[in-house]
């Protein structure tokens, strides 16, 4: 009974409120009624009336439709190639037959001399992690002497995902000016504060570490996460970092170390364990080791190995943290099982056949013995680097372009300041002429895995000569002689 009375009272109150509003503002009441009528009319109106009304449609015959379709030209999905890009595409050789140390060209059928390890490409596949992936991660960790590891399906994305997973906005990253492009993108995605030190200059690194600490104390800022990021053997010029000194600075100034061993893994050390084996340093002293599965193991992907417990704001497991926070792992499919199994077999070969590393170093020395006698070039690579970088001596000053003043730049990218200017198109043509001459003599281009190829950078007069343990000493010496003759011939012709 009380409920009915309450309802009637509420209705009367609403009616009185409406009448009071109408008396105060009759125009508002009329507007509300019109809006209500319009809403009712709209809801009851047929939504297909316009579609049923054929007065606004033009009827075409089948012939007219076919003619219109034939005349239609779709817009390109991408921008057309620039002239220099088109010329680069012309020089890209195509390999036919099985992949190996002695590839064949599809257009000529000529078999080439030494080839570097291939980089298997991987499209995104609908595959998930399986036991073979877990086995490979265990093999990598056991081989390097770390507690855990994680496998990424793309080699390029491993370092960006590692840095973005552990370094956040407000953290400090101190990086070498000579780091490769993948690491540069990784530092950008981390959104951390990046400070740079001169290329492979650990004295300058210590100066930067001191300046970072002074700045923090001056502004009385909190002690954030701090990282040192560098490469074992630099992709840029083949230089090697002084790992014991680097570890000493890491402990002295309390930084975490992220070391990219994409080139040194599988090529340096008695059994290919990289710089840790070469310098007799335990892998546990490095917080994170990054490596490539494509370079040495001739498979696909990349890995991250390190201690199981990574000190962050709290203790976290290295693998578990990256399984959840690493974008490349979360949003990408796993490496195909076949490639993972072949990579595990590659680790077993390194374990059981250390003689291939001795053969590799002998081939490196054989190639350098020939190229070191060429006055027109200089070799900045470390004596043990499997990729021999070659600079034209007339542009040797360019190697200093990565060095800056004692005060490190606060930039988003390690672009050199006051870089020398030169004829880029002319240098590109010269390098391509050298590669073409070497190719004509049976020494393959780097673009398809051969012994010589110009740098992909348009700011460097350099090309590389990778060595391989699958080749004989005579083959390596012949390949080096071809490069030597090509350099001398093209430079003489240019004069």
UniProtKB/TrEMBL annotation:
<dbReference type="InterPro" id="IPR050087">
    <property type="entry name" value="AON_synthase_class-II"/>
</dbReference>
<dbReference type="InterPro" id="IPR015422">
    <property type="entry name" value="PyrdxlP-dep_Trfase_small"/>
</dbReference>
<comment type="pathway">
    <text>Sphingolipid metabolism.</text>
</comment>
<feature type="domain" description="Aminotransferase class I/classII large">
    <location>
        <begin position="123"/>
        <end position="383"/>
    </location>
</feature>
<dbReference type="GO" id="GO:0005783">
    <property type="term" value="C:endoplasmic reticulum"/>
</dbReference>
<protein>
    <recommendedName>
        <fullName>serine C-palmitoyltransferase</fullName>
        <ecNumber>2.3.1.50</ecNumber>
    </recommendedName>
</protein>
<keyword id="KW-0012">Acyltransferase</keyword>
<keyword id="KW-0746">Sphingolipid metabolism</keyword>
<keyword id="KW-0663">Pyridoxal phosphate</keyword>
<dbReference type="InterPro" id="IPR015421">
    <property type="entry name" value="PyrdxlP-dep_Trfase_major"/>
</dbReference>
<dbReference type="GO" id="GO:0046512">
    <property type="term" value="P:sphingosine biosynthetic process"/>
</dbReference>
<comment type="pathway">
    <text>Lipid metabolism; sphingolipid metabolism.</text>
</comment>
<keyword id="KW-0443">Lipid metabolism</keyword>
<dbReference type="GO" id="GO:0046513">
    <property type="term" value="P:ceramide biosynthetic process"/>
</dbReference>
<keyword id="KW-0808">Transferase</keyword>
<comment type="similarity">
    <text>Belongs to the class-II pyridoxal-phosphate-dependent aminotransferase family.</text>
</comment>
<dbReference type="GO" id="GO:0004758">
    <property type="term" value="F:serine C-palmitoyltransferase activity"/>
</dbReference>
<feature type="compositionally biased region" description="Low complexity">
    <location>
        <begin position="446"/>
        <end position="455"/>
    </location>
</feature>
<feature type="region of interest" description="Disordered">
    <location>
        <begin position="446"/>
        <end position="467"/>
    </location>
</feature>
<dbReference type="Pfam" id="PF00155">
    <property type="entry name" value="Aminotran_1_2"/>
</dbReference>
<dbReference type="InterPro" id="IPR015424">
    <property type="entry name" value="PyrdxlP-dep_Trfase"/>
</dbReference>
<dbReference type="GO" id="GO:0016020">
    <property type="term" value="C:membrane"/>
</dbReference>
<dbReference type="GO" id="GO:0030170">
    <property type="term" value="F:pyridoxal phosphate binding"/>
</dbReference>
<dbReference type="InterPro" id="IPR004839">
    <property type="entry name" value="Aminotransferase_I/II_large"/>
</dbReference>
């Amino acid at each position: 009974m009380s409920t009915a009375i309450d309802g009637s009272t509420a209705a009367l109150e609403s009616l009185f409120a409406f009448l009071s509003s109408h008396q105060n503002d009759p125009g508002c009441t009329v507007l509300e009624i019109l809006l209500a009528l319009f809403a009712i009319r709209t809801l009851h109106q047929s939504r297909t009336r316009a579609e049923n009304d054929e007065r606004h449609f033009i009827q075409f015959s089948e012939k007219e439709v076919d003619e219109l379709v034939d005349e239609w030209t779709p817009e390109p999905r991408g921008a057309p190639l620039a002239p220099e890009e088109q010329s680069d595409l012309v020089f890209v050789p195509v390999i036919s037959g099985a992949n190996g140390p002695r590839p064949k060209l599809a257009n000529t059928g000529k078999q080439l001399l030494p080839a570097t390890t291939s980089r298997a490409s991987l499209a995104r596949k609908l595959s998930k992690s399986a036991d073979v992936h877990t086995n490979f991660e265990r093999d990598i960790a056991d081989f390097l002497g770390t507690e855990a590891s994680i496998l990424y399906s793309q080699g390029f994305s491993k370092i960006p995902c590692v840095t973005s997973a552990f370094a956040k906005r407000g953290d400090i990253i101190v990086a070498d000016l000579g780091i490769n492009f993948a690491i540069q993108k990784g530092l950008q995605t981390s959104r951390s504060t990046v400070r740079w030190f001169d290329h492979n200059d650990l004295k300058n690194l210590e100066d930067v570490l001191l300046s970072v600490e002074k700045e923090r104390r001056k502004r009385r800022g909190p002690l954030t996460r701090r990282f040192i990021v560098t490469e074992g053997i630099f992709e840029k010029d083949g230089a090697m970092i002084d790992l014991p000194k680097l570890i000493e600075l890491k402990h002295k100034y309390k930084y975490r170390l992220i070391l990219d061993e994409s080139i040194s893994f599988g090529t340096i050390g008695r059994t290919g364990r990289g710089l840790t084996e070469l310098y007799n340093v335990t892998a546990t002293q490095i917080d994170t080791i990054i490596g490539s599965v494509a370079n040495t193991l001739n498979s696909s992907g990349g890995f991250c190995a390190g201690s199981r417990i990574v000190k962050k704001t709290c203790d976290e497991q290295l693998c578990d943290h990256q399984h959840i926070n690493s974008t490349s792992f979360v949003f990408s499919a796993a490496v195909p099982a076949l490639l993972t199994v072949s990579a595990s077999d590659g680790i077993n070969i390194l374990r059981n056949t250390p003689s291939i590393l001795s053969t590799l170093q002998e081939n490196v020395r054989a190639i350098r013995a020939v190229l070191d006698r060429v006055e027109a070039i200089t070799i900045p690579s470390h004596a043990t680097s499997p990729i021999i970088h070659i600079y034209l001596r007339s542009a040797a000053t360019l190697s200093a372009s990565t060095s800056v003043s004692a005060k490190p730049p606060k930039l988003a990218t390690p672009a050199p300041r006051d870089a020398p200017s030169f004829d880029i198109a002319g240098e590109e043509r010269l390098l391509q002429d050298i590669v073409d001459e070497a190719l004509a003599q049976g020494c393959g281009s780097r673009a398809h895995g051969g012994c010589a190829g110009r740098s992909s950078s348009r700011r460097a007069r350099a090309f590389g000569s990778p060595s391989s343990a699958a080749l004989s000493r005579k083959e390596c010496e012949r390949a080096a002689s071809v490069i030597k003759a090509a350099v001398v011939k093209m430079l003489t012709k240019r004069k």
